[in-house]
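Give me C-alpha cells for this 126-residue protein.
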Amino acid sequence: MTRPPRVLVVDDEPLLVSALIRTLARIGCEGIGAHDGLEALARVRDEPPIDLVLCDVRMPNMDGPTLLKELRALGAAMPFVFLTGYGDHSDAELRAMGAVAVCGKPTPASILRDVVRTLLETAGGV
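Here you go.
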C-alpha cells in the first residue's frame, strides 16, 4: 500500500493551518501543521518525507523566505508554495527565491486543491 502524499502547512494562524489540513485530507493528502519556520524545519527533519510545502510569507521566529532558503541549504527539494496576503514581495520575487507557485490569501479551497494536485502529480506523488 502506498502512503498518502504528505504536505507541510506552515502558517502562524492556527485556524488557517487546521482548515488547510482538512482541505488536503479531502484530496487524500496527509497534512502536517507548523506555526512558524523553526517548527517547520523541525518537522522536515523529524517527520520525513514531506512531499510539498504550503507556507505563509510573514511569520514570527522564521519567515517563509528564510524557511525556503534553509530547506534548500539542507538539500530538500520538495515543491514549495507561498501563501500570502501581503505585498511585501512580488510573485516574481518569491518565485526567484525558489517557490513553484504563489497563492494569495485567502485562496479558494478549489484552487488550492488544484494547485496541490498538479504539483504532486508533476512530482510523482499522486
